[in-house]
Amino acid sequence: MDNQLLTGKLTRLVAGDPDKFGELNAKWSHDSEFFMLFDSDPVMVRDAKRSGQFFRERAEKERPGAFPFLVQTLEDERLIGEGGLWNALSSNRDAWVSIGIGERELWGKGYGSDALNVMLRFAFRELNLHRVNLVTFEYNRRAIRAYEKLGFVHEGKIRGGMRRSHQRWAIVFMGILRDEWESANR
Amino acid sequence: MDNQLFNGTLVRLAIENPETDAASLARWERDTEFERVLSHKPVFPSGQKKWRERLEEAPDERQFWFSVFALAEDKLIGFVGIFMVRQQHGDCMVGIGMGEPEFRGKGYGTDALRLALRFAFRELNMHRVALMVLATNARAIRSYEKCGFVREGVTRGADYRDRIRRDVISMGILRSEWERANSR
Asked: For residue A91, what is the domain's CATH number?
């Protein structure tokens, strides 16, 4: 039994109200590289108020089975990113997962992988899901490498489905099954 | 594969016209005996407008309510629903009410309940379906047993109305039990 289900080695998953999500996302949206790695929408700066409104509307529209999290460091309890499991209570027993570390000086240090693995533990041990899916972009090599390390498998792509800075990139679909995650995390 | 998940031998499950469905529900809720076996809530009318609003609410994955139509008469006679769906546990509840008195005790409800169970096990992939019933509601209990429900427990004297205390029985059916009885 995990008594600290939402705590990993570097991070823990914490709750955030829509305004907190809005405030942090507005801040991170000013880093266009973060935005481009995180989202398929055109890169755009957002202000905290409008961003908060976006998250409030999302919370209202969201189908049951949405589990949004903020990522907090264990070391200094800083809020450094956000993620979530989406549509996680359907009869298919699967979910979509998202993760983004907004604080760029913490990129490439394992915070995102740690938080994502905690979300997978939550998905497989608490929600009893059969599989977890994610979507990313061909140019996000660091993310793809992190997903591979956690056990995600390349399952398909939409070739040239994404256009950024006059270049076409594949949209990449990856997935992990419970058995695969369990055998890697005994 | 069942291609006609919502058609039984006596009834079909549908959502047709919120206006006329709400009119029936508003009529049935004036039947005190019906209301008292249906729920533990105080008998208190919602009214046609409220029912209509409920029927028009966007569906979500936690509850699935159907109107029950008699096939031969093409008449709305009751409702059945799967609710409190907890996918992570594979567990849910079923509720049923035959609002039209002349269609009670003739197998219509049992047929509707069988359709709801097939929906819960084959479409929602539930592991277990549970229900609560008044211990004095012998007709309902017989119908549930016919569908394969077993008694799982009693909450003693949990229902108190009109100066009479009644036990409430919880019943349940597992997918394996249902599949064994319905394999083909």
From this structure: 3.40.630.30
Contact residues, chain B, for A65 at CB < 8 Å: 61, 87
Q: Which two tokens stand for residue A73?
A: 């460091």
Q: Write down the ipTM of this complex.
A: 0.71
* Cα separations in angstroms, B13 against A144, B25, B68, B77: 47, 15, 5, 11
Tell whether B1 is covered by a domain. no
How many angstroms away from the CA of B88 is the closest CA of chain A?
5
* Nearest residue in A to B126, CA atom: A91
Per-residue pLDDT reduced to its tens digit, A16-69: 889 999 999 999 999 999 999 999 888 888 899 989 998 889 888 877 889 999
Q: What is the pLDDT of residues A137-154, one digit of tens each?
A: 999 999 999 999 999 999
Q: What angle do CA A65, B4, B68 make, to 5 degrees?
A: 75
Output the six-digit token pair for B105.
């005790």
Domain around A38: 11-184
CB A100 within 8 A of CB A83: yes
Under an 8 A CB cutoff, do A93 and B125 touch?
A: yes
Do A89 and B89 lie within an 8 Å CB cutoff?
Answer: no
